[in-house]
Amino acid sequence: MKLFVKAACVAFVLTVVFSMLPFRAACADIPDKVFRLHIIAASDSPDDQELKLRVRDRVLEYTRELYSRAASVEEAEQLTKARLQEIADTAAAEVAARGYSYPVKAEVCRMFFTTRHYDDYTLPAGDYDALRITIGAGRGHNWWCVMFPSLCVGAQPDKRAREVFSDSEYRVVREEKREYKFYLVELFQKIRRSFS
What we know:
This protein is an alpha+beta fold. The protein has one domain (27-195). The chain has helices spanning 2-28, 46-69, 73-82, 84-97, 157-164, 167-175, 179-195; strands at 35-40, 104-113, 116-118, 121-123, 126-135, 142-148. A hairpin with a 2-residue loop joins strand 3 and strand 4 (121-123).
């Protein structure tokens, strides 16, 4: 009986692993096709969290046309880097307009994101390039979205997603709702990061 239970457990594990291979392969290139926005609040106080959302709105308004014109993730990053100081100034102006004196830092960086759900889209865990805006000490909860393809700004996000992602990647971000698969991909990413 013990041998049967062990064999069943091994068979189950192998089934899960082999069922994950196509999903994992579809997830592998998604981070290299996406540019994200990450805004970190000064603290978790209600006022600082509200300020973070006001900065978000102002930055999204400023960058809306910028990202809708980008034809590739590389172009989105280049446009961001070329206007990084203007984006920082836009965020800082909103902070000052709300009566705060927090410094604002804007940077383009590569950072780890856990699996994130955005309305009708899900992005798997991984290392993504992002515009990160830090308000003050940056010790508060954050806010994030996808700037390219424009899933949180601009018109026709589904059309943009179809243009950027392959069919299998599109199924992952748009249609695949199996939470355990996303969990396993995220677990794999965290293990990989711990060894690098």
